[in-house]
């Protein structure tokens, strides 16, 4: 039957530029992405360079593995960019597919996780998964944190998240797109060595690290499945914020 492998968002780099040679291939000017530059997840079959295929641990079935290679892998890079500290504190803004995967890693590392999200069902899921605190607004968060990740594409969250960041803390911005960020006050939001870091895609090393750690924990993504023919309905549910965890398209083997 051959090896069971998965395809992530990053599907090609030149492997020759300064970024690639420095282990930062996610910044390669020649990068290509699955579902954008080439067909991928919305199909029964896909072709990938074996160098960009990931062997799937037996710990996961296909439905469990799918979110790890999409939302999970980008979320994992965002998590790394937030400079997490074992036993430290992490704030998560937005609690969708990426966030609920990363929260499991943070908890496994002994971190206390604070979640800010608007949807009642998302707050319920975060609470059930073991969040230290869950709420609708950053202002209500009862403590400042060492690390923070904004998964929601809402620029207005940036100053709010910075106000809840400890001195020397790091804020990671995980989105491909974000609405306009309001003006920041240097003394209030940035001083005392608070860092703001953006995130671009992933490296293959990120993928290998994620799958190894996910299998060790093991991570159990909360999934909602749709048949491939229901892809449009899945997108509408995603747009309407009706999905708890990760939506997965399933190909009928018959």
Give a written overview of the molecule.
The structure is a single chain. This protein has helices at residues 18-21, 62-81, 97-108, 120-128, 157-163, 186-190, 204-216, 231-239; strands at residues 5-7, 10-12, 32-33, 53-55, 89-93, 112-116, 133-135, 145-150, 165-173, 195-198, 223-227, 246-250. With 254 residues, it is of the alpha/beta class. The chain folds into 2 domains: 5-73 and 202-250, Medium-chain alcohol dehydrogenases, catalytic domain (Quinone Oxidoreductase, Chain A, domain 1, Alpha-Beta Complex), CATH 3.90.180.10; 75-198, NAD(P)-binding Rossmann-like Domain (Rossmann fold), CATH 3.40.50.720. It has a 6-stranded parallel beta sheet with strand order 7-6-5-8-9-10, with helices on both faces. The protein has a two-stranded antiparallel sheet with strand order 1-4. Strands 2-3 form a two-stranded antiparallel ribbon. Belongs to the zinc-containing alcohol dehydrogenase family. InterPro entries: ADH-like_C, ADH-like_N, ADH_Zn_typ-2, GroES-like_sf, NAD(P)-bd_dom_sf. This is Alcohol dehydrogenase.
């Amino acid at each position: 039957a051959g090896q069971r492998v998965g395809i992530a968002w990053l599907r090609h780099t030149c492997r020759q530029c300064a970024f690639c040679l420095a282990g930062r291939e996610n910044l390669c000017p020649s990068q290509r992405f699955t579902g954008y530059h080439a067909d991928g997840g919305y199909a029964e079959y896909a072709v990938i360079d074996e160098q960009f295929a990931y062997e799937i641990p037996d710990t996961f079935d296909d439905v469990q593995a799918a979110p790890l290679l999409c939302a999970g892998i980008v979320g994992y890079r965002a998590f790394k960019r937030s400079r997490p500290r074992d036993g430290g504190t992490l704030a998560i803004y937005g609690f969708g597919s990426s966030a609920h995967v990363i929260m499991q890693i943070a908890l496994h590392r002994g971190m206390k996780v604070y979640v800010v999200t608007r949807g009642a069902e998302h707050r319920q899921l975060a609470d059930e998964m073991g969040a230290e605190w869950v709420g609708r607004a950053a202002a209500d968060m009862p403590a400042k944190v060492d690390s923070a990740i904004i998964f929601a594409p809402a620029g207005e969250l940036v100053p709010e998240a910075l106000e809840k960041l400890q001195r020397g803390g790091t804020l990671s911005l995980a989105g491909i797109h974000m609405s306009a960020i309001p003006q920041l006050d240097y003394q209030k939001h940035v001083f005392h060595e608070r860092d703001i870091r953006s995130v671009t895609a992933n490296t293959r090393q990120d993928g290998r690290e994620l799958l190894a750690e996910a299998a060790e924990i093991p991570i159990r993504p909360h999934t909602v499945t749709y048949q491939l023919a229901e892809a449009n309905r899945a997108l509408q549910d995603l747009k309407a914020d009706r999905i708890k965890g990760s939506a997965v398209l399933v190909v009928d083997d018959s």
